[in-house]
Amino acid sequence: MSRMSSWWRDAVIYQVYIRSFADGNGDGVGDVAGLRSRLPYLAALGVDALWLNPWYASPQVDAGYDVSDYRRLDPLFGDLDDAKALINEAHEHGLRLILDIVPNHTSDRHAWFQEALASAPGSEARARYHFRPGRGADGSEPPTDWPSIFGGPAWTRTVDADGKPGDWYLHLFAPEQPDLNWTNPQVRREFEDILRFWLDLGVDGFRIDVAHGLTKDPAFPDLASREAGGMLDAATEDHPYFDRDETLAIYEDWRRVADSYKGERVFVAEAWVADASRVARYLTPTRLHTAFNFGLLSCPWDAEALRTEIDATLGVLAAVGAPPTWVLSNHDVIRHATRYGRAQTSLADARRLYGTPVDHALGERRARAAVQLINALPGGTYVYQGEELGLPEVEDLPPAVWQDPNRRYKDHDGPVRDGCRVPLPWSGDAPPFGFSPEGAAAAPWLPQPAEWKERTAAAEEQDAASMLSHYRALLRIRREWLGRGLGDGAALEWLPEAAEGVLAFRRGEVVCYANLSKAAVELPAGYRVLIASEPVAGAMLPVDAAVWLVAE
Ligand code: NOJ
Q1: For residue 216, pLDDT beyond 70
Q2: Which residue's CA is the nearest one to ligand 1's atom 3?
Q3: Is ligand 1 within 6 A of the CB of residue 65?
C-alpha cells in the first residue's frame, strides 16, 4: 500500500539507552557492538527508527549529556567506524537512526571550556559560555538566584590565574555541564557544523536535548518568586532561561541545514514547556518536525485527564500542521509499568510515592492497555527500551551504585534516575542475563534484579501472552492499518456512546476502546477484534484493557 505520509509523521521510534542496551565487549556497559548484534531484535519488534542517547566523547558525569567532543564516540561505546557500520546496518534492517544532540551545554572538559577557564575575564574564549561577576561586595554571591536542576545553585565560581576567586559560570545542570552562550555566532556556526558532520554520515535526524533552554534573558534577572521550571516541570511564560522566543530562531537555521539533505532528516524537541500550545511554537513548518509529548507521559491513568491532554495536543498541533508524538516513558522518568501500579498514577505521584508498594500485575496490565491506546492515536509513538518487556522501575538500587548526578544534592528535583536505566535482560536465569557476553570481565554497570529472569527477551519470545508478544503483534497490526485509520492522517472522532471512564474513538476504519472505568464495558455489535490487551469474552472489555475493532 503506498502512502503519501512522511515517515516521521507516524513512526514508532525505539529509544536506545545505549549504556544499558547490550554490551558487546564485556566491560559491563552497553556499546555500539552490542547494539549492532541486536538490530534483528529491533527489526522484529516492528519499530521504524531508533533514537540513541548521546554516544559522544564524554567524562560521563551525566551519562553522556556532558559532551567533550561532538565528533567522536566515547571509547566506552566504540569509534567512528562502529558508528558508520551501525548507521548502514540499521538502514539495511529498515531502521532509521536519530542521534541525541546536546546544544545547551558542553562538558567542562570540552576544549572550549578549558580554553575559557584559562583565559581572562572578558576574553573571546569566555564569551562562548556565560561568565559573570558575582554579587555582593566581594563577588561571593552568585550572579542570580537560579537553581541547578540537579540541585544547588546554577552558578559555580572560578579561580583566576593569580589564585584569587574570579567570575562565576552558568550551569543549569551539573557544574560539569557549563551552559553555552547561544548569542555567540561561533556557537551557532559550530553546532550547524556538528549537525552536518553526522548528517553527512547518514543519520536521519536528531533529538534535541533541553530544546527549550538554549537562550537566556540577557539581563539575567532573578527568578524571585517565579517557578524555576526544569527538566520535568513545565516552564512558565516569560521565563529567564526556558522557552524564550529567541530560541526559536536557532531552529529555523537548523531546519535549513536538515532540509538541504536528501531524504527526510528530522528533529524532535525535548521541550518541557507549559502546555501543548507552547510546544506548538517549536513545530511550525520552518522550525522542528516533532516534539515529545510530555503532557501525556505526566498524566495519571485516568480517562478524563488523558482525553483532555489528547484533545489539547491534537488541537494545537493541527493548527501548525505538525504530527503529535505519544510517549509513556524515557530515561529520565519512573517507568510507567510502576507508575500505573499504584493508586495514584501521575508522574508527580510516582515521584512522591517512590519506593512505596506497587501492584506490579496492575501496572503491567495498564501498561499493555496504554501502549495500545497511544498506538491508535494520530501521529507517532516512542518505546523506551525495556518497556516492551514490561520492565518496572528498580526503586531499591543501593545508594552506593547510584550514578545520576542529582544524587549529590539533597534539594534535587525528584528521585535518582538510575532505576529506569538498569541494563536490559536478554536471556538466561541469572545476571547479566545476556546483557554482557559469556565470561564478561565486569558486571553490568547497575545490578539487575534476580526476578528479571522472568522478563528476559528470550523468555518473553516463547510466551504468546507476554508483553513482548503484545508489542510485536500491536506494531505489526498498526503497520497493516496505516493509511486506513492508524498512524498519520485520519481524524480522531470520540464516540459519544462511551461510558464514563472509557476512551472510545474512531480513526478511519479502526475503532479503539480503552476501559479505565471500574467495570467491564460492552463493545459495539458488528465489529471484530483486531487486537486486545486482555482477552475479550462475550463482547465485554474488561477493566484496564484496550481493544482495536474493525467492522465485520
Ligand atoms: C535531558 C536529558 O534527557 C537528561 O538525561 C539530562 O540529564 C539533561 N537533559 C541534561 O542534559
Answers
A1: yes
A2: 332
A3: yes
* In a shared domain, residues 386 and 457: yes
Which are the contacts of 482, defined by CB distance < 8 A and separation ≥ 6?
Answer: 1, 3, 5, 10, 488
**Active-site residue, 237 included:** no
Q: What is the pLDDT of residue 183?
A: 98
Ligand 1 contact, 210 CB (< 6 A):
yes
The reply to whether 64 falls in a domain is yes
The predicted model gives 523-528 an average pLDDT of: 97
Q: Which ligand 1 atom sits nearest the alpha carbon of residue 65?
A: 11
Position 210 in a domain? yes
- Using the mean position of ligand 1's atoms as its centre, give its distance from the Cα of residue 316 in Å: 26
pLDDT reported for residue 228: 75
Q: pLDDT by residue (tens digit) across 70-123?
A: 999 999 999 999 999 999 999 999 999 999 999 999 999 999 999 999 999 999
- Compute the average pLDDT of residues 122-135: 98
Residue with CA at minimum distance from ligand 1 atom 2: 209
Question: 539: domain range?
Answer: 491-551
Domain co-membership, 57 together with 194? yes
Tally of structural domains, the chain? 3
Domain shared by 68 and 138, yes or no: no
What is the Å distance from ligand 1's center to 171 Cα?
13
Rounded Cα distance, 501 and 303, in Å: 5
Q: What is the DSSP letter of 429?
A: S
- Are the beta carbons of 510 and 485 closer than 8 angstroms? yes
- Does residue 284 sit in the same domain as residue 222? yes
**Angle CA 499–504–508, to nearest 5:** 150
* Residue 529: closest CA among 546, 515, 544, 504: 546
CA of 417, closest atom in ligand 1: 5
Is any ligand 1 atom within 6 A of the Cβ of residue 83? no
In this model, does residue 3 exceed pLDDT 90? no
Domain identity same for 319 and 204: yes
Q: What's 236's DSSP letter?
A: P
- The verdict on residue 479 lying in a domain is no
Whether 270 is catalytic is: yes
**Global pTM value:** 0.97
Least confident span in 126-130, 224-228, 325-329, 378-382: 224-228
Ligand 1 centroid to Cα of residue 209, in Å, is 6
Mutational test site, ligand 1, from 16, 65, 382, max ligand atoms within 8 Å of CB: 65
Atom of ligand 1 nearest to the CA of 405: 7
| Pairing of β 49-52 and β 96-101 | parallel
Residues 229 and 346 in one domain: yes
